[in-house]
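User: Please fill in residues for this 91-position structure.
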């Protein structure tokens, strides 16, 4: 695989992870409760946004990128041809 394709794929997976993680976090019942999804916005707690959202964003970006990199690394190791001198040493 070319290096540019691997880098572009990693960025794409990381971006999709961020969007998906933030969307799931925002759609959860717990988050809706903290953002005041009650009668006349009783129970609003924007502290949840300030403390949780950065972690959700980072986890959504880092976890898919690490898994992508691990997969590329494992596939790269499997496809590497054996050096020509190594086959003569084992014979």
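Assistant: Residues filled in for all 91 positions:
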């Amino acid at each position: 695989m070319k290096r540019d394709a691997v880098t572009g794929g990693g960025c794409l997976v990381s971006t999709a992870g961020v969007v998906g993680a933030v969307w799931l976090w925002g759609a959860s019942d717990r988050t809706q409760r903290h953002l005041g999804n009650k009668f006349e916005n009783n129970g609003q707690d924007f502290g949840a946004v300030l403390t949780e959202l950065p972690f959700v964003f980072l986890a959504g970006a880092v976890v898919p990128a690490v898994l992508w990199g691990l997969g590329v690394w494992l596939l790269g190791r499997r496809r590497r041809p054996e050096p020509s001198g190594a086959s003569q040493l084992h014979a």
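For context: DSSP finds four helices and no strands in the chain.
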